[in-house]
Write the structure tokens for this entry.
Amino acid sequence: MIAIIPVAGAGTNLRPHTYTQPKSLIPVAGKPILGFIIDQLLENGINEFVFVIGYLGEKIKEYVERTYPNIKKNYVVQETREGLGHAIWLTKEVIPKNSEVMIVLGDTIIDVDLKSFIALTSSALGVKKVSDPRKFGVVEFDQDGNIIRVVEKPTIPKSNMAIVGLYKIKEFDILIKSLGHIIKNNIRSNNEFYLTEGLQEMIRRGVKVEGFKVDNWYDCGQKEVLLKTNALLLKKRKKLPSYKKNLQNCIVIEPIHIGKNTILKNCIIGPNVTIGDNASIYDSIIRDSIIGNYTKLNDVVLFNSLVGSDSFIWGSSQSLNIGDNTELDLR
């Protein structure tokens, strides 16, 4: 089975951070989002990958080559952002015929029994009940539990089961033909070719598709969700890294993650804090936040904050959303 991971989006909801790095490389619990996705797939026996890259794609490629040099991988470039359906359609040139594929969105961390999902004998979509299905692609089922309809952001939903960004496609050739039909006939919504349209065409052509309920999923496309995901993943970690040698006169409230070569002095850190590598933090209080690499903080109180790499902040007491290479003096 081949994993397709689309990571071509611009991540406009996470600006200013995504001006300088793809949202799939933003760290949560000490690891980029993309790293959690790749590791989960590798642990379940999938070791061949296709990455659909676009905006800041060279940074995706550099991260994958550096961190996972031994996996089998291809890169497909989506020159213009024309939707997820178009992104998947582009992979037809590098995926052999009669292949089974797993599609996992590159900004989504999913809590799921992936082994059981992979073992399904038919194509399947990961789904979960949501309170407001109008924000998502949703599925409708027949009396046997098979998916009969897939709709993107319906105005009047007939189901509250949302698609979570996890797809197993046994009949990938038929999906490609279905997407080709959508693209040839210019069937767009909001000026994009939706994957849901291609899935619906595939179902119309007679392909059986199941729904598979996931435990949780974390769509890390917004600051609030990203911070919540960071907290949840920190709490779930089985092995906590040692960081005591980095601390000087500090109080720690678990869970936290402190990166390599990071120094903290006279600080109260936690809970739910991730700090990157080579940071320097003095005389500060930080909770429920993500701090980037090489960042310097002095005399700050931060909460519910997302601070990019190579940033400098002095004398602040508030919630911040600061991109890379920023300098603030709020004394």
Notes: The two ends are 55 Å apart (CA to CA). The longest helix spans residues 223-236. The longest strand covers residues 161-169.
